[in-house]
Write a structure and sequence with these properties.
- The protein has helices spanning 17-26, 39-44, 47-51, 69-82, 96-100, 111-122, 142-155, 175-178, 186-195, 210-216, 227-231, 239-244, 253-269, 274-278, 291-301, 309-316, and strands at residues 6-8, 31-38, 60-65, 86-91, 129-137, 160-168, 201-204, 222-225.
- It is α/β, with parallel strands linked by helices.
- It has two domains: 6-243, Alpha-Beta Barrel (TIM Barrel), CATH 3.20.20; 253-324.
- The longest helix is centred in the last third of the chain and has 17 residues, at 253-269.
Amino acid sequence: MTRHFLSVAPMMDWTDRHCRAFHRVLSRRARLYTEMVTTGAVIHGPRERLLGFDPSEHPVAVQLGGSSPDELAQAARICADFGYDEINLNVGCPSDRVQNGRFGACLMQEPALVGACVAAMKAVVSLPVTVKCRIGVDDQDPEEALDRLTESVVAAGCDALTVHARKAWLQGLSPKENRDIPPLDYPRVYRLKAARPDLPVAVNGGIGTWDEIRRHLTHVDGVMLGRVAYHEPEILLGVDRALHGEEPPVADGFEAVEAYEPYIASHLDRGERLSSITRHMLGLFAGRPGARAYRRHLATEAVKPGAGLATLREAVAHVSRDVSRTAQPQVPADAA
């Protein structure tokens, strides 16, 4: 499996195809993930709407939610036929809906079943099959819980593990609270990697700066960014240069908008509303004078019937191009 030093987490209602296409403008190398899609939706739902993606998104992984080995195998086969580069199993989402469906983080309590799910998918696809999990749930001992899950999925042929370095509390905390309240325990993920040198391990949770990314990469194989990649997408401009020694595809947010315009135009021509695309761009230009006016203009104008590229350009015109007056994050030169 090709090593992906940095990826953007699957995030419900956020990492749809438009978001991923925009993130790809910022980095050729970051691995992108879909929102979680359930096996039932894949098997019985509108597949093109749920699974369709632009070829520019590669490398892109699909995240599946489910707990039936047979259904996951069927869904994995469908996703492979769509052309995804990786199948990822969700063992980390703590929402009530996910628990009621017996998948997501509650599967931390059933490591043998998770292993059976991985084995079933590995038997029918040639793609990498990976797992995203927590360090444990509720009153589980994170040392034992993560080790048991890892042992089961590795035996089943799991190609890589991404660990959100927090417990999930299935009772008493909302999904939002589960992203912030349980304390982060990065050393637990480091110990897993040290014990499993041959298993690609990535860490996720609360990572927001390039200094943090560098520190984690001295202990694990990869870093998965979540909310920071969405709210401050220009952080992705550092991926290609810092981690792969390549120039980024665009220099800054202004060039990113220009590079993304043909994609936007093509979807507007298909009848999509500008706001459904540009909502993923509101975090651009953080720290620049005019960024707030840019966001306000897009938020109020892009929803209007007939809004198009002119609306986007008007929003960008509010932003200062004077780099000396900005607090833009620097694109790192290397991963030292």
